[in-house]
Amino acid sequence: MTVILNTLGALIDNGHGLGVHCLNPDCRRHVELDLPALAAKLGRDHGSMHRDLAPLMVCTACGQKRVQFTLLAPNPSRPRR
Ligand SMILES: [Zn+2]
């Protein structure tokens, strides 16, 4: 079975999360995105690929705009709304 995860809604519906890592070597802040909140703002059909989300990200600790994403495994306790 193929699961396509190219939208925020698809990530949410499949229980996945997205981690974001700041690429400033002096910061390296890491957070898990609140995908339901992001989908409420951008729409569930908004792309979930790096090119779709990276331009919108700014590190809240240092202001860095260069980030890296990690796809997080499905977790039933992750909020879906
Ligand atoms: Zn940072």
Give the distinct bound molecules.
zinc ion
Approximate strand percentage: 15-25%
Distance between the termini: 25 Å
In total, how many beta strands? Answer: 3
Radius of gyration equals 13 Å
Strand order of the largest sheet: 2-1-3
Average per-residue pLDDT, rounded, comes to 95
Compressed to H and E, one letter per element, the order equals: HEEHHE
**Poorly predicted regions:** none
Which word captures the global form?
globular
Structural class by secondary-structure content: alpha+beta
Question: What is the helix fraction of residues, given as a range?
Answer: 10-25%
What is the count of helical runs? 3
Helices and strands in order:
Layout: H1 8-13, E1 17-22, E2 30-32, H2 35-42, H3 50-53, E3 67-72
Antiparallel strand pairs: 1-2, 1-3
What does this structure look like?
By secondary structure, the protein is of the alpha+beta class. The chain is 22% helix and 19% strand. It contains 3 helices and 3 strands, in the order H-E-E-H-H-E. Strands 2-1-3 form a 3-stranded antiparallel beta sheet, with no helix packed on it. The longest helix has 8 residues. Bound molecules: zinc ion (ZN). The site of zinc ion has 8 residues, from loops.
List keywords for this structure.
3-stranded antiparallel β-sheet; single chain; 3 helices; globular; binds zinc ion; alpha+beta; 19% strand; 81 residues
